[in-house]
Design brief:
Structural class: mainly beta
Largest sheet: 4 strands, antiparallel
CATH architecture: 6 Propeller
Number of strands: 24
Oligomer: single chain
Strand order of the largest sheet: 1-24-23-22
Shape: globular
CATH topology: Neuraminidase
Order of helices and strands: EEEEEEEEEEEEEEEEEEEEEEEHE
CATH class: Mainly Beta
Strand content: over 45%
Number of helices: 1
Amino acid sequence: MKIAFEVAAAVTDMLGECPLWDERSGLLWWVDCRAPAVKHLDPASGAVTVLPLPETVGSIAFRERGGLLAATKSGIHFFDPAAGTLAAAARPEAHLPDNRFNDGRCDRAGRFWAGTMSDVRREQSGSLYCLDANLDCKPLRNAVIIPNSLAWSPDGRRMYFADTNRSTIWAWDYDPASGAASDERVFADTGAGRPDGSCVDADGCLWNADYGGWRLVRYNPAGKVDRTIELPVANPTCCCFGGRNLDVLYVTTATQRLSAAELAAQPLAGSVLALRTGSQGLPESRFAG
């Protein structure tokens, strides 16, 4: 399906990721993993603010008390946007210098989940972690290659997760009270598709960025494809709903590993796109710690 889109932020991110809409400030936040930097857009003015970081960043999350979490090369940190400073919250893989954090998101109860991966080789050295409000950091799953697609159903009772290189999105039953995930099963086998970041809409459907596939895919709660939206870039990376009514779908994209010819053929690669799909999203969950 073709749908009209706008360029929300005319940037050229190497690896844009993890868009989050802050309904408190009316700003769109995201990261360029490889810059590395945290960025935010004021849609009213079109102004983009860039906050450089000292190391690769995979994802961010809002904190209930203000500021952000940033999942980076060395661990999960508290990030003060005003001061530009990081303070360590958890470093579960200090013994694995080749690994870094990638996709991350908060569950509906305010825990932060994030996965790690090797930044050197495509091997099964990554894990999926949960950071509680008390900063207790525990692994749920190991043998991960590229963690992505962390998201929760509107009631918080289903959790989603993908390993991009395995072309699979899984679902778990999830207990918001305890943070326990159980009954892992395949939600969607994406075939040739490479599932990257995701978000869930108010109807409980999962929107996934198909990296390398030039498209977004929406899966209904049964795991069936019910919409695909063609994009002008090969490598969409993640999506979120934002805007005053949470009815604008923002999509981050990437330029990494594209040849000069490929970049010329897709001049919007690396930008942040905005689409009106007719769906509405949910407010972003915030870290409780």
